[in-house]
Amino acid sequence: MSSLPSSSFPSAPVDVCVVGAGPTGLLLAGDLAAAGVRVVLLEKRVRESNLTRAFAVHARSLEMFDARGLAEKLLDTGLFLSSARLFGGARIDLSRLPSRFPGVLMTPQYEVERVLEERALALGAEFRRGCEVTGLRQDADGVDVDVREEDGAARRLRAAYVVGADGVRSAVRQALGMPFPGKSVLRSVMLADVRLATEPAEVPVAESGAAGFAFLVPFGDGWYRVIAWERGSDLPSDAPVDMENLRSVVHALFGTDYGMGDARWTSRFHSDERQVPRYREGRVFLAGDAAHVHSPAGGMGMNAGLQDSANLGWKLAAVLQGRAGETLLDSYHAERHPVGQMVLRVSHGIIRAALLGSPLARRLRDTAARAATVMPFATARGTGLVSGIGIDYPAPPGAHPMTGRRAPDLPLAETSDGPTRLYEALRAGTHVRVLPRGAKAEPEPGVTTVTRADALPLTLLVRPDGYVAEAVEDTGSSGRPGPGLLRASDAV
Ligand SMILES: Cc1cc2nc3c(=O)[nH]c(=O)nc-3n(C[C@H](O)[C@H](O)[C@H](O)COP(=O)(O)OP(=O)(O)OC[C@H]3O[C@@H](n4cnc5c(N)ncnc54)[C@H](O)[C@@H]3O)c2cc1C
Question: Does any domain span residue 383?
């Protein structure tokens, strides 16, 4: 892993300053560096953390790793699962997700960070550890960022744009005076990484009942993450986790504690549901937990942060390089704020269902969950939202129905050394124009042109983040671009 670079603190203005080297900041810094933008990543931690909060990487995030040539590397670090067992024995089948990755990858958050950090560094992002952002001020041309270095030295950095990816207690958000409205939803949830003498028959597995709720997830290397909440417990977040107490909650819910051994790591957390009203304030943007936070139910926080970054990176690069107007940047809030709202709603629904106190309500919930998981539409809708596969962006009335949709991984016509499918073509980091089979087009600057393998008479312009900017059918119905979606004609 990287150590603190020896170069002096940047004295000349930079294009983008990303604050926070969690998953959100690392993906963004890598995307900006890949696009040729001068990006500085400031992280207050001196060393990388070997603790993990997140462990579930959903299908849409894996598609994004694929579009950067990183999916195989990440898949090698964990366990790919295509089903999960929910409350009351309901089983959710992910194997029919319409994705190259029909399931969920269980891997520690630090592996996600490692893969993204290696890429960002290799692409030339300037990474400075031990640099805590303490304040900022913006004017018409840029942002002054106040930084405290590890030795206490105060520094100032000038950037054209700043992105606060500095987590739930975001200093960037506070410096903007941006409210973070919401409420506390969960207290005293126990976390432990343990070995189990007996493996659960199916993993991941969740149960909730009179005792509380528990969730067991394998990391794939013999260790399991246990997340458990005991009904009525109201201990502070810094109270130590009592392993006997944890075993008894798990036993009460599953009828066994699976021979739970001692923990290599324990913690408690409490969880809030909050979202900022605006993701953009002038030249400053908020992304990831700095912009939205919710309970871990559904495992969507890190995934949503990664997708915030994938949405913002190419837009910042296009504006900085003069390929699009400033207003394109407003589409970051327009597209990602509603997704953040949805994630809060879905996670809230799951946690409410897990916390139900009355036995009758729990029986009804379990029956409803079992019924829903055998209804193809309900399953597809639920898994589509949680996995990110079903998330689309708004398109204007009259636009082709594909506009704003997630582009599927279309097979492409064979060429000697070209990409064989769309997500390989997206690795160029540009828009990709997908022509019907046999069609020809003039080369466009900043656009990679490919030809689809199937016979569908549809031309697509796919954004660098894998969403459809424009769709045109041969039948004459023309696709108009959605709000904030960069059209081919905007590319100079
Ligand atoms: C128990 C638990 C389980 C979870 N499981 C999942 C899951 O399975 N899947 C999922 O998608 N999500 C999950 N989450 C949520 C997930 O961990 C977060 O959403 C994710 O870490 C957010 O990433 P981020 O990069 O936005 O912020 P963070 O990971 O919080 O990173 C922010 C970074 O900014 C740095 N920083 C902070 N302040 C400053 C400053 N002033 N200056 C410089 N640097 C600063 C921090 O040191 C940190 O490195 C879980 C959360 C918990 C608590």
Answer: no
